[in-house]
Amino acid sequence: MKTVTIARQTVPQTAALAPMASVADTAYRTLCAEYGACMTTGELVSAKGLCYGSKGSAELCRITAAERPMGLQLFGSEPEFIAEAVKRILPFAPDWIDLNMGCPVPKVVNQGAGSALMKTPQLAEDCLKAAVKAAEGKCAVTVKMRIGWDAAHINAVEFAKRMESGGAEAIAVHARTRTQYYSGNADWSQIAAVKAAVSVPVIGNGDIASGADALRMYRETGCDLVMVGRASYGNPWIFSEIVHAVGGKPFTQPDVETRLREMLRHIRMILNHSEKTEQLAMREARKHALWYLRGYPGAAAFRARSAGLCTYADAEQLVADYLASRAELRRE
Contact, 60 vs 43, CB < 8 A? Predict the structure, then answer.
């Protein structure tokens, strides 16, 4: 299988897992890596929070061997805090450090960070240069960006050129504007334009929901790697599907029993990696549970019960009841 070197990591040219705050935690990243995600990135870490000694921010920097190669992602809009945060991240031994310049959520944007930096390219470049200087060559610094603030202000190519000149060793492009959030169609032509404009590796992100989509993005944009985000919700198999597609092999989707068995394993992984009580950890597991049966008969009722899971035993009972109801329907 063809390989590609991105952020000093040589990986199969298959698909990376996108960084997703409050979703892609240690358990999630590990599971996706098992199924073929060639690179993973941690959840969004506040540069300022890390500098101020936030325990929560520091916990987000933990890396396990099963998740590598893995980067840690910072957000912020003040170069001095970015630089100090990079110095504090280095002891966690990330394989690279990513600067988030694409997050659309108000609590990030209102700080002038995330996709707000698309409106202030000079500040974005200053933040990047501060990060590169603080890293002292110990690991690569990369950038994840959008294509612009809104449809009237698409500046992906110009922005990407600044990031390259500022020292970014790879650029991931989510092909939507900030005002789109995650709606509408991703404009892959902007990924192609960025790829043609810079010499560093370009990672394409947006609307990859199948192996066929991944092949089409490679073909249409010339990107060095594709990145999968929301399509992996309750579906870590998408990475296996992409591996098969890249290798020209057929892929068989998992059956319901396999999905539910893996859902329970995913929940066990969440519990094993959490320092919280079972009840609190299960609150985090609920959203993952309700994603596993999207599109299947009885999924609505399954989701409703998933929202109330309090213990692992509750999850086991939910699965048992669902499978029993399917068996009853088949007998009728």
Answer: yes
Tokens 């399917």 locate to 326
Q: Among this protein's residues, is 310 annotated catalytic?
A: no
pTM of the model: 0.95
Which of 51, 103, 139, 223 is the catalytic position? Answer: 103
Contact of 208 with 240, CB cutoff 8 Å: no
Please, is 92 exposed, middle or buried when counting C-beta atoms within 10 Å of its C-beta (0-12, 13-18, 19+)? Answer: middle
Nearest 5°: phi and psi at 110? -65, -15
Class of residue 115 by CB neighbours under 10 A (exposed 0-12, middle 13-18, buried 19+): buried
Q: Is the dihedral of CA 50, 119, 131, 202 positive or negative?
A: positive
Structure tokens at 312: 């692992």
Q: What is the DSSP string of 101-165?
A: E----HHHHTTT-GGGGGG-HHHHHHHHHHHHHHHTTSSEEEEEEEEESSTT-B-HHHHHHHHHH
Cβ atoms 84, 52 nearer than 8 A: no
Say if CB 199 and CB 171 are below 8 A apart. no
Q: Which tokens belong to 65?
A: 């061997």
Closest CA to 141 of 90, 214, 212: 90
Nearest to 24 by CA among 11, 37, 41: 41
Each of the 332 residues of the chain gets a pLDDT tens digit; together they read 899 999 999 999 999 999 999 999 999 999 999 999 999 999 999 999 999 999 999 999 999 999 999 999 999 999 999 999 999 999 999 999 999 999 999 999 999 999 999 999 999 999 999 999 999 999 999 999 999 999 999 999 999 999 999 999 999 999 999 999 999 999 999 999 999 999 999 999 999 999 999 999 999 999 999 999 999 999 999 999 999 999 999 999 999 999 999 999 999 999 999 989 999 999 999 999 999 999 898 999 999 999 999 999 999 999 999 999 887 656 54
Q: What are phi and psi of 2, to 5 degrees?
A: -65, 140
